[in-house]
Each structure stands twice: as C-alpha cells, then as structure tokens.
Amino acid sequence: MSESTATDRPADAVGTSQYLTFCLGEEEYGLEILRVQEIKGYSRITPLPNTPPEVKGVMNLRGAVVPIIDLRTKLGLRETEYDRFTVIIVVTVGKRIIGLVVDAVSDVLNVSASEAVPTPEFGGGLDTSFMSGMARIGERLVTLLNIEHLVGNVSSTASLAV
Amino acid sequence: MSFDPTIYHLAFFEEAAELLVALEAALLTLDARAANPEAVADAFRAVHSLKGGADAVGFEGIAQAAHALETKLDLHRAGTAVNGAELDALLAGADALAEMVATERTGTPAKLPTATASPVPTRTVVVTVTPAPDAFRAGLDPIPLLRELAALGTVRRVGLRAAHLPPLADLDPETCYLGWAVELDTPATDAAVRDVFAFVGDNVAVTVAVPGERLADDGGETDAEALRFARFLTDRGMVRPEAALAALDGQRATRPLLGRLAIQAGYMIPEDVYEALSRVEPGELFGDTAVSYRLLRANHLQDLLKMQRRQTPSLRDCLVSAGAIGRADADREWAAFAKLPPPVPPARIAGEEPDVPAPAVEVAVTTLKPEMAELLAEFCTENEEHLETADRLLLVLDANPTDAEALNAVYRAYHTLKGGAGMLTLTTVKNLAHEAENLLNLAREGKVTLHAKALDLAFASTDALKRQVGFLRRWLADHEELETDPALPALMAELRTFDPVTGRSDVPPSASVPAESAPEEHAPTAGRAAGGDKETVRVDKGRLDKLINSIGELVIAQAMAEQEFIDLTRKTGGHSLALPELSKISRDIQELGLSLRMIPLQGIFQKMARLVRDLSRKMHKPVHMALHGEETELDKTVVDQLGDPLMHMVRNAVDHGLESPDERAAAGKPAEGHVGLRAYHQGGSVYIELTDDGKGLDRDRILKKAVEKGIVAEDQRLSDAEVYALIFEPGFSTAAAVTDVSGRGVGMDVVRRNVETLQGSIHIRTAVGKGTTFTIRLPLTLAIMDGLLVELGDDVFLLPLLSVVESFRPKRSDLHTVAGRGELVAVRGETVPLLRLHRLLNTPTKQTDPCEGLVVLVEDSGNKYALLIDDLLGQMQAVVKSLDANYQSIEGLAGATILGNGRVAMILDVHGLAGLHQRTGRYPAVERPLPLLATGCVP
C-alpha cells in the first residue's frame, strides 16, 4: 500500500514523495508523511499488561485510547532513557491510530524516484519486511519504513506474549 | 461516472437464475399435486419478478416471454388444476425463459423469440389490420406487414375483411379495400404486436384484442369463453369467421364499464374510479388496479365482474341479432359447446366464481430502489414499533377479547403500516396489512371475537408483517433480492377466507397471558402503553453514540479542569464559583445522555409472553405467565442482546422446567404451570428473574451426567451453586443430555456467554419439585461502569463494582497454600483462591504480602476469588473505551477508561483474570521479567 501510494503520486510531484524523518540513535528513518496525524511530546503513558515489550502502553489522545509502540524496541535497538527530545509520532494505519516513540524527529524529506533505492539484501537474517526501501540524500542514508508491516505485526506478536 | 448497464445486467442475471430455479421448483410441485394455488402463485411471482427485472434492464424479449408465461399461469391462479399437457407447456416456457436468459448472459443478442425458434409460452391474440383506403398511394404495402406479424408467432387463421370491396367495375386499383383479422399465437406483448405497424402511422388502423386476457375496463371473464365459442362455431361451419369476429367486437363494445358499474353499485365513488383509472398501467386491469390501491374491495370486484357479465349480451345474442346464426342453432351449439371438456377453468364456464378472489395482488415487490433506502429504513423502524405494539396488545386481547381500546390500537397499527407500505409501493406488505386490518375491523364492529382462530390469525399476521419488515431490513443491508415469505400465501388465503361465523376455535386456548397484570393494569392503559401519546423524535443511533461519547469527554475535561484549578490555587488559594456549577451541569448532562439510550424491558418481556403462549399451545401445557416490572429501563445495547438468552431460558422453563399436566396433577400441583418474568433495580444493577413452578433441577442427576461427560471428576466435591452452574457447560447443551438431566441445557451455554458479554452474572435457585428461579444481574449500561479504583504499583486500575463482593485484609491464619503454590484465603467460612493481580498482569507492585496489602473478594459466575492489590483509592463512574478500537483486547482487561487527571486506566475483567489464573496457576509461578523497564517518565 505504502509503496503504491509512493509510486502513484501525480505527475506534478514528478515521482517524489514526502517523508517525515526521525532518528533512532545514529540511524535515520523515514515515514510517509500522509500517514502522520500529529507529533506529540512524550508524556506519561499507562502500561498495558501482558503485551510485548515494544508496546509501552496507551495514552489518552483527546478521549481515544491509543497504543504507544517504542520503535527502538520494535526494531531491536538498545533502549534508552526518554528525554526532552523524545517524541511520539501519531500515525494512522487503516482505521487505527497508533503512537510511535522515537528519539527525535529531524525533518521532512522529498524523495524522488531516482533517490529511492530498493531494499538491499543484508543477509545475516535481518528481516527487511518492515522497510519499503532506502533513500540516499546527499550523504544521508534514510531507511523508509513500511508502516503496515511494521505495526501490522503488533497484534500477532502480542498474542504470543500472554 | 458513466452509466454502465452491465452492472445491472449482472444483477439481473443473478436474480434471474434464482427466479428460474424457484419457478421450476414451483412448477414441479404442480406436478405432484392436482390443484395447488400456492405453487401457481409461487410460479407466478417468480415469472412476474423476472418480467419486472428484465423490463428494468431492457431485455424486452425476456420480459415479453415472461409476460406470456405469466398470462398462462394467471389462468390457474384461481385454483384450478393444471393438466399434464398444460404443465408441459409451462415447463417448456420456463425452459425457454432460461434459455433466453442464458443467451443474454453469454452475450449473443437474443432476437425477439419466434414460436418456431423456441417453445415460448404463447397466447392467442386477434389483430385486425385495416389499411386506410389511400394506403397504397402513400406507398404502403400491407403484405410485408402481415408477414412480419406472422413472424411473431403461429398464425391460426387469417380472416379477410372484404366488406368494402366494390364490384369489379367500380374497383380502383390504387385504393385499398381490404382488411384482415389475424388470429395469432404469439409470445409477444400487445405493444410488440403494435410495433410491427409502428412505421405506418395512420395509414393502417390496428387493433389488438387479447381473448382470454381481460382488458382494462372490461374485466369480462367470458372473453376466453366467448372466443372459444366463436371458434367452436366457425370450426363447425355454423358461422362465418368474419361474422364471429364482428359479433365478438360487438359484444365487447356493448359491455358496461366496470367503473360505471362500481359507481352504480355504490362500491366506489366517482373520484376513486378516476383515481383508479389514472393508475392503470399498460397491461393492467382496471379492477385489479382499483383493488390493489384499496379503492375497491376484492369481493366487490368479483360482484362487479359477475354483474358485468350478466349485463353483457352473450355472443349468441350478438350473433343472432347480427343475423349470423339462427336462435335455435345458437342455443343448440351453445349446449354442445358447454358439454365440451373445458380447456379453461370449468368454474368460469359454469359462471361460478372461484372461492378465492384472484386479483394480481400477491405479487412480490421488485421495485425497491436504492434511493428509497432512507424512507424504507424509516418505515422499518416505525413499523417495528407498531408491530411490537400490536403484538403486545394482542396479548391484552387474549386476556380480554373485547378491550375496545386495544382493538383500536392494533387496528391503528395495521392501518399505519398499510398506509406506509402503500406509499412505498410495498404491495405485499400493504395487502397483508390490509387483510389483517379487515380482520381487526370485523372485531371492532363486533362481528368477530378475537380469540382462538381469529386471534391466532391476528398473531400470525403480525408475525408475517414482522417477517416482511425483516426482509426489508435485510434488503437495506445487502440490497439484494427481496426475500419472500413462503408462509405468506397460505396466511393470505386464510385471512381472506376467514369466516366470522364459522371462525370457531379448533383448539381451546390454553395459555392465558398475561392474566395476572393484564386485566387491572394493561387493559385500561393500553392506549397509553402503546406509546402513541408520547411525542418523540427519532435519532440516528450513530449520532446518539457520538453525543454520548462527547459527553463522556466533556465530563473528563471538566474533571481535568477542576484538577488543574486545584493544583494552580493550592499555593495561592482561591475559589471558583463557576467550576462547581460546571461540574454539576456536566454531571446532569452525563446522566441525561445515558438516559437517552435507556429503553424499557417491555418489548422484550412481551416477546417472551408471546413465546410462552406459542409454546404452551404447541406442547399442550397450560401455562400462566406473569410479567412484572416491564417498565424497568436498560441500555438499548443491553436490551438488544438480552433477547436471545431470555428466549432460551423461557423456552427451557416451559419445555423442560414445567411438567406435563398429568405429571403436575400427580404431584398435586395445579394443572396450569406458572412462569414469571420480573425485572427490578437494586443497587445500581438491573435484575431479571425468571421463575417457574416446575420440577426443579435434580442435583444428583446433573452431577452424574457431568461425571459421565467428563466435565467433573468423580470424587470432586461441588457446592450446589457449582453443580447448578454445570447446566451452562456447553457439553450439557446436547439434546440427549437435556432429557436425561430433566431438562435445562438447550442453549444454556449461550445464555451464560451472552450474559457475561453484557458484564452480567446469572444465578440459579432451585428446589426439586417446587421450581427454579434464574436471576440475571446486569449493569444498567455498558457505556458507563461503576468501578473501584485500585492501586497496584504506580498504576491505577478500575475494578467493576458489579463483581466486587467485599474487601478485607486477611489475617496470617486465614492464608493457606497447597503444594507450596496454590494460595487460598479463608473468608467467612469459605475458602477462596488468592489471585495476585501483579503476577497475573506482570506489573510491578508495592505489596506482595496479602496481610499488608488489601484483598478484594470478587465474584465471577458463581465463583469467588480473592484479588490481592496494593490499595483501594475510591470509586468512580467510568466511560468504557474498548482497547481493540486501536489495538486489540487483552485477556484480563475489559477495556480502558480515562481518569479525572486525563490518564488512561485499565478496567479489570474478573472473568478474564480467573482464566489467566487457571492457566498460569497450573504451572510453578515464575516471576516473569517485567517488560516495563522504560516506563520511567520524563521528569
């Protein structure tokens, strides 16, 4: 889905898509901007019992109970203390609203078709299904995330945890 | 968007396939039994629907063929038998239709079917073709036209009208003197026949007469007969064909108009006649139209048709007066003709009316359009209510058949339904409502007492109408083919033939419902109970939910504002006058908002009373049903989900709970069983009690069965409550088990499941030989929940108050362990398993010692558990939010809510926790690594 929207962009954008980029440690990731509903500072969340570790809990988003997922944990990175840069990116996946905890957001990136490269073969058992590709912008290499794949598994892994 | 007809074609093909199957099935039933008006009606409906569908999507050929078949079938709708040859013809027609549909489907454009090409059902038409005298000069050659006409079917004969032909000397070769009368067997419609002459304009006068089919205004059933007689005469050479045709024309011309007769007879007023005339569609008959628009009664139409026939000179008279045949010859021929085996219904030859009037009124509605959806939905909602009312009041009438107010109210309900259905052209519904209305009218006029057969019919009509409304609902949901009710034709026939004089009771009424409360309470207030006096506004449910959600948020925001104000003014001090006011108003709004969703249990109770009545009759067990507290209100979502479990329970109570009259007599009980349904409020919950005075539950037999089934170990000791709870086990719901265990069990697992979904609980009290009482406890609403705020570690959970029994701090001596890990707490003489909440939820805790923390005794479907928590913080009303809206549901949690400080708190689900405990409790309790390392928050 995300790929198709990326490639099906109208001609005026000449095959470019906009991505919100954010950092997890030294690495930079990009999310399709149309998915992003809002960006919130990290505030206290209520833990959700018996859920996988990346599910930090739920928060109250104007009356809606929204699950919060730590992307570091989800991607198997080392966990860090949350600080004043820590933000929650609220995204919509289908009809669901989900919050993603990331270290910091950096900027909005126009990625043209020529800059996007397909996901390379990493080998070594690295699961790349959550990636929709990579973009090289000057010196920077941004991993473009496939949000459906990324949080689509949230439900399935959660059921294993009980 | 461009219009794509193929979509409609596809829909038609699907519909047609079903209809063709139905048609064939109906026709094959005809084969089995001789006279079968129902099957004919079914077949007719199928063909009629097919015709309508084909017409709508532009398959004229199919429509025409269907029309022809329909005409054939119509002859048999009055109830005459279909003989073998006719049936063959009908089946061949059905096959031809199927072939035509298939042809359209596969894309080969089907030509107008000719009789030689496919054995399409045909009818006989007489086409007179009279070219204008100067037709030749206008370049018209009638011969190709006649050939084209002949191509429409099989020409039986062609009569030449040469009356105007002058002597040869005077003949002008450029003038057309001739005319033709063509008797044609054709599947084509009148319109198609006329189409042949579409391009000749005024140069040719064309009439198409359809012998055997009544035309608008003439309604003469003798048409077919007259035509056959004419043919009979011409075949025998008694009359020249021209003379016969002329006589036929003359006969038709002298026939009085139905409308005029109706006015003369006082059956219709002139305005109605005009209205009916304005509504006659091409191909429709005046009489049928008037009947279907309720401008004329069906039996009056029959009278009128008889009258018309009497006032029409017979063909014999016409022939005699035209000098075509002598009087004596005519009478002799007629006598010979009348002796012939009738190819058309004998009833018509004998001039007698069939018992069942046969206007085309039972035709299924096929004209539902998506644009009508909104109106239909409104119609459904409104009339579901009316029908509920009718049902309820019929029960009142059961107790007191002369209750005028109830009679009027039921009559009104049918009448309103009829009006709405008429407006929406829901012919089936309208006709049924009309018949039911007639029945009620008879009762209102005192001609019929609504009991026994009459009351059953009224009930059956209400049910059938409900089914019809249900079909509409389903249509609204899927926009597919409107279902038809197989029981409807029989009911219609019964209603129509219901005779107030002979309508005696066949079966003595055995259920007197609701005798206890009805005569004193119901009867006088029936009108008001119908809810007609209260003015209401109908609101879309989605909007209401949104409103209630917003109110919930308002209450939360208000609480947050209050908290913030307190925090801000803690140091500086200060008062707010507005805030307390705001808080009061928002509480009021919240209460009001919730009350919007509250509906009384009346409807569902009434259904149960009805169910008892039906069961009582079916099983020949006299049952007295008493209802109490129907006015008790509950959230609509709860009430909606309550119907199923209650139904199962009531059915069980009557079926298995109550003994047969003989058994009761033997046990020294009154023959009439007693079933009571009662609702009341108590402590923020609603209780619904179902009581019967039957044989009660047999503890030993249940236990024995449970051991047999392996649900319970043989040496297991169970409390009474635990034993009775066994009947809710799915294993107990098989039929065999039920009879063995003295009943109770059909669907009882469904009952428990449903009640639990509603966050309620169910209890059983029973005494062998005395009866059983089921008590369902339900929360007032599912949207709001009263809960205890429970502290566990740094987090706050909400424990539904409904499941809380008490809280206490156990003494050391009250604690026991089994095998080092199964922990038990003794409380008030009971030993209850201890559930460590933090362990079940894998959350951090402050207290691991039950004697230091607090234990809450909770209850889940009769089982008690002691829940170890850190502390109790208070009580609150929580707006329940589901977790699976954005995530998924989690075992042990019933959902989430938002606290006054804006934070989310989880709502505990005792049933789920018990389940978690059962699974984790079997294994050594391993403290899992807590996954919440990073919950430390930003300072």
UniProtKB/TrEMBL annotation, chain A:
InterPro entries, per database record: CheW, CheW-like_dom_sf, CheW-lke_dom
Location within or outside the cell: Cytoplasm
UniProt-listed Pfam families: CheW
Entry keyword set: Chemotaxis, Cytoplasm
GO BP field: chemotaxis; signal transduction
Gene3D superfamilies attached to this UniProt entry: CheA-289, Domain 4, SH3 Domains
CheW-like domain residues: 16-156
The keyword Cytoplasm belongs to this UniProt entry's keyword annotation: yes
UniProt GO cellular component terms: cytosol
Coiled-coil stretches: none
Descriptive protein name: Chemotaxis protein CheW
Organism for this UniProt entry: Limnoglobus roseus
TrEMBL record, chain B:
Enzyme class: transferase
Pfam family, one: H-kinase_dim
Domain Histidine kinase positions: 581-782
Known catalytic reactions: ATP + protein L-histidine = ADP + protein N-phospho-L-histidine
Species the sequence originates in: Limnoglobus roseus
Physiological role: Involved in the transmission of sensory signals from the chemoreceptors to the flagellar motors. CheA is autophosphorylated; it can transfer its phosphate group to either CheB or CheY.
A GO molecular function held by the record: phosphorelay sensor kinase activity
Keyword Transferase tagged: yes
GO BP annotations, alphabetical order: chemotaxis
Lineage: Bacteria, Pseudomonadati, Planctomycetota, Planctomycetia, Gemmatales
Keywords: ATP-binding, Chemotaxis, Kinase, Nucleotide-binding, Phosphoprotein, Transferase, Two-component regulatory system
Amino acid composition bias (Low complexity), ranges on this chain: 508-517
Residue ranges of domain CheW-like in the record: 784-919
Name of this protein: Chemotaxis protein CheA
Domain HPt: 1-104, 368-472
Residue numbers carrying Phosphohistidine: 48, 415
SMART domains: CheW (SM00260), H-kinase_dim (SM01231), HATPase_c (SM00387), HPT (SM00073)
EC number: 2.7.13.3
Cytoplasm is among the record's keywords: no
Region annotation (Disordered) ranges: 501-536
GO CC annotations on file: cytoplasm
